[in-house]
Structures are given as structure tokens and as C-alpha cells.
């Protein structure tokens, strides 16, 4: 079980084909684009997200590496089968590893970067933990989608594999000091 992630290969922008697919989908489904160019929201090795201002509100196009391209299917399963409070996926293109979703408000990451709030973070962790507990007895639903088995008995090995991908972690915003701290925590994780 190897967890090596290949970064996005689109040279920091989604392909013209991906953007064209999104524009075509939106306009053919009654969304009037208010600007000619979408706005870049996130550009990391894990995902590339751009935002379209439309007549029906903000719409996000998210593209991920192939290894993470199950996100739209997971979100839809969480919504349909578990009634989870997750973003609304409006379109999914498996060939381009991308999907469109409606605006769900400010991301927790952006809120915490502006003003760290321990209580808010703890509440988010509690909500995520509750969701994990709710789906735990239905793990086969996710394995059937192709989700890798990253359960607790495999966690220490996965943690070490992730830490070995320093370039990707630094590109995602971690500093060398933070990586060193994470390395020191390996015995605790194990």
C-alpha cells in the first residue's frame, strides 16, 4: 500500500479543456457567467480550485490529481446516503478529474488563517469525528467507490509515507520547522 501522490500536471492551471468543459456546462444549464475569467482560489499539489461568478451565485471548479479524483463521488455519497452537510456537486467529469460545486461559504482554512479560533477548530473536529463514526459501519460503500483503505491500523505507515513527500508538503504550505516537528512526532503516531 503506497500513498505517493503525483502533483497536478497542468503547470499550475487547469487545462483549457477543463475550463471549457466547466463553462459549457454552466452556460448550458442556465448559469450566466458574470466575468470572462474565473478567479484562482487554491493552487496546491493536492488541488486546483477556481471560482466562477454566475447569475446563480459562486460556482467552484476543482481539479485534483488522479489519485484524489474520487472527491466528487465521496461528497455525493455523503450527501445522498448519510445526509451529511457537504458542498453540493452540480457536475462531475471523471475524464478530466474535476467537478463543479456550489458555494458553501468561507472555508475553515481561510477563516482560521485570518483569526485562529480554537473553539471553532474543536467544533469542526467534533463534526468531522461524528461524520466518521456515522459512516464507519458502512466503510464498504466507500471501498466500492475505490477509496483507499487508510484506516487506523495502517495510519503510522501512511504517516511516514506522507512525511517522505517533503516537496509536496512544502508546496502545500508547511515549513521545514513544521516538517521537523511532524517527524519528531512519528513515535507518538506509531
Structure summary:
With 190 residues, this protein is an alpha+beta fold.
Write up what this structure looks like.
With 190 residues, the protein is of the alpha+beta class. It contains nine helices and five strands, in the order αβββαββααααααα. The chain has helices at 16-28, 71-82, 108-114, 118-136, 139-145, 155-163, 166-171, 176-184, 186-189, and strands spanning 39-43, 48-54, 57-63, 89-93, 98-102. The chain has a five-stranded antiparallel sheet with strand order 1-2-3-5-4, with helices on both faces. A hairpin with a 4-residue loop joins strand 4 (89-93) and strand 5. The protein is globular and about 55 Å long. The two termini are 17 Å apart. The model is unreliable at 1-5 and 7-12 (pLDDT under 50).
List its salient traits.
190 residues, alpha+beta, five-stranded antiparallel β-sheet, globular, disordered N terminus
Percent range for β-strand residues: 15-25%
How much helicity do the residues have? 40-55%
- Output the number of helix runs: 9
Whole-number average pLDDT?
89
Main sheet: strand order: 1-2-3-5-4
Q: What characteristic shape results from the CA principal axes? A: globular
Number of strands: 5
Largest sheet: 5 strands, antiparallel
Low-confidence stretches: 1-5, 7-12
Distance between the termini: 17 Å
Structural classification: alpha+beta
Q: Rounded to an integer, what's the Rg over CA atoms? A: 18 Å
Please write the string of helix (H) and strand (E) elements: HEEEHEEHHHHHHH
Amino acid at each position: 500500500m503506497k500513498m505517493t501522490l503525483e502533483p497536478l500536471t497542468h503547470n499550475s492551471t487547469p487545462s483549457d479543456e477543463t475550463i471549457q468543459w466547466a463553462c459549457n456546462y454552466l452556460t448550458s444549464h442556465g448559469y450566466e457567467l458574470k466575468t470572462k475569467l474565473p478567479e484562482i482560489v487554491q493552487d496546491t499539489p493536492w488541488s486546483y480550485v477556481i471560482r466562477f461568478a454566475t447569475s446563480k451565485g459562486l460556482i467552484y471548479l476543482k481539479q485534483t490529481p488522479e489519485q484524489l479524483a474520487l472527491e466528487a463521488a465521496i461528497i455525493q455519497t455523503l450527501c445522498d446516503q448519510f445526509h451529511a452537510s457537504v458542498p453540493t456537486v452540480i457536475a462531475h467529469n471523471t475524464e478530466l478529474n474535476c467537478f463543479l460545486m456550489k458555494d458553501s461559504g468561507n472555508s475553515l482554512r481561510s477563516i482560521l488563517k485570518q483569526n485562529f479560533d480554537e473553539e471553532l477548530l474543536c467544533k469542526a473536529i467534533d463534526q468531522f469525528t461524528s461524520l466518521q463514526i456515522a459512516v464507519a459501519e458502512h466503510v464498504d460503500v466507500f471501498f466500492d467507490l475505490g477509496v483507499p483503505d487508510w484506516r487506523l491500523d495502517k495510519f503510522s505507515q501512511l504517516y511516514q509515507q506522507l512525511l517522505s513527500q517533503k516537496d509536496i508538503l512544502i508546496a502545500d504550505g508547511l515549513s521545514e520547522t513544521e516538517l521537523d516537528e511532524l517527524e519528531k512526532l512519528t513515535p507518538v503516531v506509531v
